[in-house]
Amino acid sequence: MSTVEVKNIQNEKVGEIELSDQIFNREIKEYLLHDMVRMQRAAKRAGTASTKTRKDVRGSGAKPWRQKGTGRARAGTRKSPIWRGGGVAFGPKPRDYSFKLNRKVKKQAVSMALSARFQEGNLVVLDDFTLEQIKTKDFINVMNTLDLSTALIVIDEDNENLSKSSRNVNGFKVLNVGGLNVYDILLHGKLVLLQPAISSLEERFTA
What we know:
34% helix; 2 domains; Ribosomal Protein L4, Chain: A; alpha/beta; six-stranded mixed sheet
């Protein structure tokens, strides 16, 4: 078991908590993290790019001029890809870029991303993060107190004041434990966990 300090939003130490080595201090396999990020980014691609081939272009199918005797190159159709206004050769068509990884790999990748942040010293555990009102300035003041310029904040249950206060601040994102993913962990330099969320993480990602 590894131990980490628990702080409050005034950046004062209020205790310590033990973290499961299976989730927060395991061997990191970069290729698994790479595969997960590729999968998440591929799933977000629209795949709607489309071009017209020679069969899709509007126009006559008549031969522009006779085969021989004109002195010009042979031409069979005005819709040829080498003609201006013709179809596109080997252009993109709508497609699905997504691919799947099995559930075991996904769980391992998330725990490796968590381990990376812990081993780097970029993991912060807070006992609570309660804001009295929805106010961006209050959220920024807390982040300045904690000396954080970018962070992924993981909560165990819906926190409307926190979510709405942070959503317009660049570099910060609030996620529920159920939505935790490799891409967001690696995208943000710091990882902030609320203490109650750690129990939920251990339940979810312990094999």
